[in-house]
Amino acid sequence: MDTLEAITYLDLETTGATPLRDRITEIALVRFEHGVEVARWQTLVNPEQSIPSFIQGLTGINNEMVASAPTFAEVADKLLSFLEGAVMAAHNVRFDHGFIKAEFKRLGITLRQKVLCTVKLSRLLYPEYKSHGLDAIVQRHHIANIVRHRAMGDVEAMLAFVEVARNELGPQALNQAVQTLMSAPSLPPHIDARLLEDLPETPGVYLFYGDNDLPLYIGKSVNLRARVLSHFHSDHASTKEMRISQEIKHVEWITTAGEFSALLLESKLIKARQPIYNRQLRSERQLCTWRLGNDPQQTPLVNLVREEDIEPSQLGSLYGTFKTKRQATEVLRTLAEAHQLCPKYLGLEAWAKGACFSHQIKRCRGVCCGKESHEIHYLRLQQALMAHRIKIWPFAGKIAIKEHSNENDLTQLHVFDQWTYLGVADSEGTLANILENSVQFKFDHDTYKLLLKALNSRKTQVIALSEELQTAEFY
Fold first, then answer.
1. What is the CATH number of the domain that holds 168?
2. Are 231 and 129 contained in the same domain?
3. Which range marks the domain in which residue 72 is found?
4. How far is 144 from 467, CA to CA, in rounded Å?
């Protein structure tokens, strides 16, 4: 911190969590220059809208307290004077920075501010701890006499944390961590920095282009600005990263409502646009899976099915996703050896009467020569394959995964049926169109994995859909 010429520690209280819809109710800050405090300021702000009751209970700021307070427009110039030429430090700085930028934008002012996040600073300085919220920091470092959830109280908690870190770890370690977090990317000379000025700090997908309309690289992030700029840091993680940064001529981006939305869009765009620096696409590998037959006595008991030939009725009898027939065969052979299954009945060995070779060396329990029943062998095969099973669709019909971003106030509903992605809706009209239109079943392994992971998360909002439009889902 001492190496920064000027730094302003700031905290806000607001009417909610969405900068585009909610407003600031309190501002507090302390400005340092060359390590010395030079100014301290706090003010209530009239948000020009009602403060929700649960926010009043959290912060202690009610509608009566802010009724006679100045509006943001009336304190904007003073706030700018405290921020001018300084790094703005806040705990979860994306939140505070997002609100301040939104307030200034309402006044026709575009704020360009260097920022420092003390959450990231705590993680860097104290990686042994899991939680880095202010409450956890105050408790962990025994910081006393702090009024939490009021703006100046939270600023003082940040200042106390920085002082604790300086005393415990030393000024050099503190300053080095700050410099690491503040290290600016070095843009190649052929990229106009103005092209990246409007990069949002929201979830989304970005596309890097070279000299033509074919993208060099497509990526996703929960913070587009941070991720895109990370490509231009001097300490490239790989030769590929360096080559990408040298070839980029312009950047495009698409904001989404969250990480799941970004993952789906990234997968779709990569397969459609086939950027040269992305990994080899799965759609080009002709994925295949093993289908288990219904008759314990049939031969072979399993057959390979290509991804494009999978039908909804087969779900639940499919096992594994493999890049090649050779890989699928190797996995099946390994399972056969581990579970003493008959390679003849699995199609791994040419059919002939009598015991298979594996039985002769005691690696098959003898279904091929009557020493094991077909039913028992079939059940053991099912058990051996179970870890690789592609799941049956667990819902009665269509569902939607709902995501909402407070940063851009965007809500998206991603509609699925039988693991097939039917489309994304950001309004009641587009949702109605998706529900009305029939989409041919198409199993896609990437979509299957993304959706399966989302469904296993407690944070995922799953909505069961009928043909009747659920109008309340976008509010």
1. 3.30.420.10
2. no
3. 6-182
4. 57
